[in-house]
C-alpha cells in the first residue's frame, strides 16, 4: 500500500491542476445538487421490532390519514390570578387567538379549549390544539410568525400564553462550528509556524465537509435523512479532515527537512503518513457504519452519512493535499527555515515529546497506575446512567415550550405531558365494544393512572384507541412501570375478550428505544471492536498492541460517559457548559459515543504507534522506538487532538440539546483518549511489555497480508534513489520510478 500511495502522492503533485479541478468540480456539483433539492427533511423516528412501532404501524393501517407526522401546536393559556378562562373577557381573548391561528394558510384545523376537555377543573388553565398541513421543517417563517403574533395578542389581553408542540422544531442553528475552526486555525499556526501550512488542512477540510454536507442535503428528500444528519457529518468531517491533512503536511515538512526535493517529499509523505490515514479512516468508517446493527433507521442513516464524509476526508488527504503542496512551494516551511535552510531546525535539544517519553520510560508503573485510577474515578458516575429521549421538559426554562410544558403539568398533572396511547386490536374479539370497555376498565384500575379516555373506534370497528394519563411525569420510573403493567395485562385481556392491547406514544417509544439500544450495545461492541482488532493486527503485526488499544478505548469511553452523566444528568458544572436543565441522558448517546469515539481513538493509536513500529522495524530497541515515536509524533498528535476537541466543543453552544450533549461527550472523550490513554497509558504499557509488544506468531505473520503501513517495503524500493531529483529546485524532475 505504501508504494501505491507514494505513486499517488507524486502523481497528484505533478498533475496538481487536474486533481485540484476535479475536487473543485465535485464541490460545485454537490453544491448545485443541494441548492436544487427539496428542503424537506424527515425527523420521523421509527424503531422496527418494538411494540411501540407495531402499535403505530397498526394505527396507521386501521386509522388511515390520522397518523401523519405533520406539524402540530399546543397553545396553553392561563388566566390571571383569581380569574378563570371561562370569564367572558378571558374567553373572548382565547377565542380571538384561536381565530387568528385558523387563518394561517398552512393550518389544517385549530380547536379552542372550550370545545372539549381542554380546560382544567379549576378552569384557570386550558390549551388549544392546532394541526398543520405540512411537516415542521416545511413550515414557512410567516406561519411561525403568525403563531407567535397570535400568542402575543393573548398576552396583551392579560393572559399567560405559551406554545409547545412540533411546530417549534426547526433546522439546527449553524455557526457554532466557526468557534472550532477558529481555534483549529490558531493551533495549526502555532504548530507549523507558517500561515500557508496552517491553511492547507483547513482548506481541504472545508472542501471535504462542503462536498459531504451538500451531498447529504441533495439526497435528504430521497433517503429521508433527518435534520441532524448533516450536523453530525459536519462535526466529524471537520475534525478528521483537519487531522488527516495535518499528519500528511507534517510528514511532508519532515521529508523536506531531510533534504528531499518537493515531489519526492510529497510522495513519501503520502506513502507513509497516508497509509496511517487510510487505516485510521477505515476504523472510523467501520465504527460509524456498524451503527446499522442497532436497526434504528435514523441512527443508521446518520452513521452512514458521517462515514461517507470521513471517506471523502481520507480521499482528499491522499490526493488533494499533495496537489496543494505543489502549489504552495516552500511556503509550507517556517520563515526561519526558508531563510537559513533545514539545518537550523536540527538542534540537539530534545523536544517535549522526547522528554515526556523518557519520563514515562523511567516510571511506567506510576504513569500507568495514575492514568487508570484517574479515568476510573471519572467513570464512576456512569454507573448511575439514566437513559431517555428529550422532550419539552428538558428544554430551557426560559423557552416557551418549557413554560407550556410546566403549565400543563400544573393544570392537568405531570403525566399529562406523557400520555400512553393504547391501540386495541379487536379483529379477533367476538364483541368489540364489550372488549374495548373491558380493556378500559382494566387499565383504569392500575396504579399510577389518573384517567383513561373512552374508546375511540375506527370506521371498520375493529380497532380502538384509549389514552391513559399517568400520575407521574413521562421520564419517571413510575411511568415506565405503568407501561410494563399495561403490557402485563395483555395476555389476560386477550384470553378473556380476544382483544390485543399495544402501547405506543412518545413515552412508550422512549422506553422501547432505551431497551433496544441496551440490547444492541454488546453485539455492536463485539462487531466494531472485533473488526478493528483484526484490522490493527494487520497494521501493527502484533497481538498485544491491538488488545491494549481496545482496552484503552473502553477505559476512555466509560470515563467520557461518566463525565456526561455528571454534567448533563447531575448538573455538575452545568452552567459552565450551558446546561439549564438536567435530566436523563439521550438514549442513543452511549452507543453513539462508542461508535464515534472508538473510530477516533484508533486514529491516534495508528498515528502514534505506527511511528514507533516504523522505528522498531528499522532496528531500534523497544524503548528507543517509543522515544522516536514521541519525538516525531507527539507534537502533531497533540495538535490533532486539540483541533478535534475544539471542533467538537464548538457544538456545545448549539441550542439543540442532542447536539450539545454529543459535542461535549466527544470533546471530553478525545481529551481522555489522546492525552491520558495514548500519551500516557500506551507508552507505559509498551515500556513494560518490551519486545513482547511486537510479538506475532510466525504462522499468523505468514498468513496476514503485508500492507506495509510503516513503509519498510517502500524504503527498500527507494534505497537506490534516495537522493534522486537533486539539483531541481522545484522538484518537477521525475526520479527513478518505483
TrEMBL record:
Highest taxon above the source species: Bacteria
Membrane topology, from the record: Multi-pass membrane protein
Assigned keywords, A-Z: Cell membrane, Membrane, Transmembrane, Transmembrane helix
Domain SSD: 178-327
UniProt xrefs under InterPro entries: MMPL_dom, Mycobact_MmpL, SSD
Residue span of region Disordered: 718-738
Transmembrane feature ranges: 178-198, 205-223, 229-249, 270-294, 306-329, 365-383, 521-544, 551-573, 585-604, 636-655, 661-689
Protein family (similarity comment): Belongs to the resistance-nodulation-cell division (RND) (TC 2.A.6) family. MmpL subfamily.
PANTHER family (alphabetical): MEMBRANE PROTEIN MJ1562-RELATED, MEMBRANE PROTEIN SCO6666-RELATED
Protein name (Swiss-Prot/TrEMBL): MMPL family transporter
Amino acid at each position: 500500500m505504501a508504494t501505491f500511495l507514494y505513486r499517488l502522492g507524486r502523481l497528484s503533485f505533478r498533475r496538481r491542476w487536474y486533481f485540484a479541478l476535479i475536487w473543485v468540480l465535485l464541490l460545485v456539483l454537490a453544491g448545485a445538487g443541494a441548492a436544487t433539492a427539496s428542503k424537506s427533511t424527515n425527523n420521523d423516528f421509527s424503531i422496527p421490532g418494538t411494540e411501540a412501532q407495531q402499535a403505530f404501524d397498526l394505527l396507521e393501517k386501521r386509522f388511515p390519514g390520522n397518523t401523519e407526522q405533520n406539524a402540530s401546536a399546543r397553545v396553553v393559556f392561563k388566566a390571571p390570578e383569581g380569574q378563570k378562562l371561562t370569564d367572558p373577557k378571558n374567553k373572548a381573548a382565547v377565542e380571538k387567538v384561536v381565530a387568528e391561528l385558523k387563518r394561517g394558510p398552512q393550518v389544517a384545523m385549530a380547536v379552542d379549549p372550550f370545545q372539549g376537555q381542554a380546560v382544567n377543573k379549576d378552569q384557570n388553565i386550558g390549551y388549544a390544539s392546532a394541526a398543520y398541513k405540512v411537516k415542521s421543517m416545511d413550515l414557512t417563517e410567516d406561519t411561525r410568525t403568525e403563531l407567535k403574533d397570535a400568542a402575543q395578542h393573548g398576552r396583551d389581553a392579560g393572559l399567560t400564553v405559551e406554545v409547545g408542540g412540533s411546530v417549534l422544531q426547526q433546522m439546527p442553528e449553524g455557526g457554532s462550528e466557526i468557534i472550532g475552526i477558529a481555534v483549529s486555525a490558531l493551533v495549526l499556526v502555532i504548530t507549523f509556524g507558517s500561515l500557508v501550512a496552517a491553511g492547507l488542512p483547513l482548506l481541504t477540510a472545508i472542501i471535504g465537509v462542503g462536498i459531504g454536507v451538500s451531498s447529504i442535503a441533495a439526497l435528504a428528500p430521497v433517503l429521508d435523512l433527518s435534520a441532524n444528519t448533516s450536523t453530525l457529518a459536519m462535526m466529524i468531517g471537520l475534525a478528521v479532515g483537519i487531522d488527516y491533512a495535518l499528519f500528511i503536511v507534517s510528514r511532508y515538512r519532515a521529508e523536506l527537512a531531510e533534504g528531499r526535493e518537493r515531489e519526492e517529499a510529497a510522495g513519501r509523505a503520502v506513502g507513509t503518513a497516508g497509509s496511517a490515514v487510510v487505516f485510521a479512516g477505515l476504523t472510523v468508517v467501520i465504527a460509524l457504519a456498524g451503527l446499522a446493527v442497532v436497526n434504528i433507521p435514523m441512527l443508521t442513516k446518520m452513521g452512514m452519512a458521517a462515514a461517507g464524509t470521513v471517506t471523502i476526508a481520507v480521499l482528499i488527504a491522499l490526493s488533494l493535499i499533495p496537489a496543494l503542496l505543489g502549489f504552495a512551494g516552500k511556503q509550507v516551511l517556517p520563515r526561519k527555515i526558508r531563510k537559513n535552510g533545514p539545518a537550523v531546525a536540527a538542534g540537539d535539544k530534545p523536544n517535549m515529546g522526547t522528554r515526556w517519553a523518557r519520563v514515562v520510560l523511567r516510571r511506567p508503573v506510576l504513569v500507568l497506575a495514575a492514568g487508570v485510577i484517574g479515568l476510573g474515578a471519572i467513570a464512576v458516575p456512569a454507573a448511575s446512567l439514566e437513559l431517555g429521549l428529550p422532550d419539552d421538559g428538558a428544554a430551557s426554562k426560559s423557552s416557551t415550550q418549557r413554560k407550556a410544558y410546566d403549565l400543563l403539568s400544573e393544570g392537568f398533572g405531570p403525566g399529562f405531558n406523557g400520555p400512553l396511547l393504547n391501540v386495541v386490536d379487536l379483529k379477533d374479539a367476538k364483541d368489540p365494544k364489550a372488549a374495548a370497555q373491558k380493556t378500559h376498565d382494566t387499565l383504569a384500575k392500575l396504579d399510577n393512572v389518573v384517567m383513561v379516555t373512552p374508546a375511540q373506534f375506527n370506521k371498520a370497528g375493529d380497532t380502538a384507541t384509549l389514552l391513559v394519563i399517568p400520575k407521574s411525569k413521562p421520564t419517571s420510573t413510575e411511568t415506565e412501570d405503568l407501561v410494563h403493567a399495561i403490557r402485563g395485562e395483555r395476555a389476560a385481556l386477550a384470553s378473556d375478550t380476544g382483544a390485543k392491547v399495544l402501547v405506543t406514544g412518545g413515552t412508550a417509544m422512549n422506553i422501547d428505544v432505551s431497551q433496544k439500544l441496551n440490547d444492541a450495545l454488546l453485539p455492536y461492541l463485539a462487531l466494531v471492536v472485533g473488526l478493528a482488532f483484526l484490522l490493527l493486527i494487520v497494521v501493527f503485526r502484533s497481538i498485544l498492541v491491538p488488545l491494549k488499544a481496545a482496552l484503552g478505548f473502553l477505559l476512555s469511553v466509560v470515563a467520557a460517559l461518566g463525565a456526561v452523566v455528571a454534567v448533563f444528568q447531575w448538573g455538575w458544572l452545568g452552567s459552565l457548559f450551558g446546561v439549564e436543565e438536567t435530566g436523563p441522558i439521550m438514549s442513543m448517546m452511549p452507543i453513539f459515543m462508542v461508535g464515534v469515539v472508538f473510530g477516533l481513538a484508533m486514529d491516534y493509536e495508528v498515528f502514534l504507534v505506527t511511528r514507533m513500529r516504523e522505528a522498531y522495524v528499522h532496528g531500534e530497541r523497544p524503548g528507543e522506538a517509543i522515544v522516536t515515536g514521541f519525538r516525531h509524533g507527539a507534537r502533531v498528535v497533540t495538535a490533532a487532538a486539540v483541533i478535534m476537541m475544539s471542533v467538537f466543543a464548538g457544538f456545545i453552544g448549539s441550542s439543540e440539546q442532542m447536539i450539545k450533549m454529543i459535542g461535549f461527550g466527544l470533546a471530553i472523550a478525545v481529551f481522555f483518549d489522546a492525552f491520558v490513554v495514548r500519551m500516557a497509558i500506551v507508552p507505559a504499557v509498551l515500556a513494560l511489555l518490551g519486545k513482547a509488544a511486537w510479538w506475532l506468531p510466525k504462522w499468523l505473520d505468514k498468513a496476514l497480508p503485508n500492507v506495509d503501513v510503516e513503509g519498510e517495503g517502500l524504503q527498500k524500493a527507494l534505497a537506490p534513489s534516495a537522493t534522486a531529483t537533486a539539483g531541481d529546485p522545484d522538484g518537477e524532475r521525475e526520479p527513478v520510478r518505483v
